[in-house]
Amino acid sequence: MKRSFALGILVAALFAAPVFANQPDFPHISTTGYGEIEATPDMAEFSVRVVQSQMDADQAKQAVDAVVDKFLTGLMSKGIEKKDIQSSNLYLSPQYHYPEKGKPELVGYRASRTVTLQVMDLDNLNSYLDLALDSGINQVDNIQLKVKDQGQYQEAARMAAIKDAQSKAASLAKGFDQKLGKVWRIEYRQPMNQPVVMRNMAMDSKVESNSYQDSVITIRDRVDVTYQIGK
């Protein structure tokens, strides 16, 4: 029984060792700094979809392709570059009616394609959406408002997070009558910044809203810092 007990302690110690291996063996303060920068969107990306249902699969495909081709031709005429356009392959699926009794009945085919456009000039967003409507597009999946120079704003948010961590550490050290020493460890995990998104807009009327022009994008960052402290 004694040997088993001793072996249990040894095993527990072996598994616990890595947990404490990264812990500082000196007095320290750990802080987390947060930074936020607000930016006005100057570009956008939107995805539109055309959906058609026909009795014949080939007819459904042709109807969808005709709408997409018209939309792409219109975009090209407005000077949109091919690199800013992504057009998905055709998605075709049979549609069934399920009666209470009996086998499912084929009632037609549903075809769809999606076009994603990068809009470098936000002032043109509404005209591109109107063009989609005129071409026969019947669904907007989402509109994402973005900024062109994301890295510049991210760097500013990161610097704000660093200053926040430094300020907190200095305040804590002063409050506990300690001297703030050198940085021992820095841990950085950049948060995922989400663009402003507007979803599921109906394509049954002209797009007249300019509310997106008043939107603000908040770009965030954070940093975890451990400082040495001493008297």
Automatic annotation (TrEMBL):
GO terms for biological process: DNA damage response. Residues 1-21 form the signal peptide. Keywords: Signal. Pfam families: SIMPL. This is 26 kDa periplasmic immunogenic protein. It comes from Vibrio thalassae.
